[in-house]
Amino acid sequence: MRMQTLENGQIMVIIRKLEISYIADNQKELTYRSLPFSVELKTALLQYKLLNELCNDNFILAKKIGEAPLTRQGITAQSKKDWLEYLDLKNNINVHRFRHSMTIFLLNNKVNLVQLQKFLGHSDIRNTLIYLKYVDEHFDNAIHTANNEFYK
């Protein structure tokens, strides 16, 4: 993640075949997702960079001088380890489950379905509607609300 990306309050993530990929000129079918984040997260990331004496001024997710660079797998493994420790969970969870959990949390807190569709990067709202079977409210009411939002 580049530092200048922090300036506009968004992280640009490149997704190809459902995994985070590097930008390459010869790749086709890249899909861009823009995920907003809070001022608090920006502050925490900058503090993390300072506390860990990271070497590259242009990157947050970098290693100390003289160490091998972080890989996608390394970032995923460390993030998973940190979250499992923080949540006091066993190792039977993967990063994608955090995405599902966040989605269900947002639905239970009445986040607009069209906004959630955009947040998840779903091109078709039917993919977002699949999550409705996991929420606390009645399914028919949720479908009705989704249809009203979608067909405005």
Task: List the topology elements.
Blueprint: H1 3-7, E1 10-16, E2 19-20, E3 31-36, H2 39-51, H3 72-87, H4 95-108, H5 113-120, H6 125-129, H7 139-150
Antiparallel strand pairs: 1-2, 1-3
Structural class: mainly alpha
Q: Please give the share of residues in helix.
A: 40-55%
Count of individual domains: 2
Following the backbone from N to C, one meets helices and strands in this order, namely HEEEHHHHHH
Beta-strand content: 5-15%
> Which value, in Å, is the CA radius of gyration?
18 Å
> Reading side by side through the largest sheet, how are the strands ordered?
2-1-3
Shape: elongated
Q: Which consecutive residue ranges, at least 5 long each, have pLDDT under 50?
A: 1-30
Largest sheet: 3 strands, antiparallel
Mean pLDDT reading: 66
Defining key terms:
disordered N terminus
Summarize the entry for a quick read.
The protein has helices spanning 3-7, 39-51, 72-87, 95-108, 113-120, 125-129, 139-150, and strands spanning 10-16, 19-20, 31-36. It has 152 residues and is mainly alpha-helical.
Can you characterise this structure?
By secondary structure, the protein is mostly helical. The chain has two domains: 68 residues, no CATH class; 56 residues, no CATH class. Helix content is 48%, strand content 10%. It contains seven helices and three strands; from the N terminus they run αβββαααααα. It has a three-stranded antiparallel β-sheet. The N terminus is likely disordered.
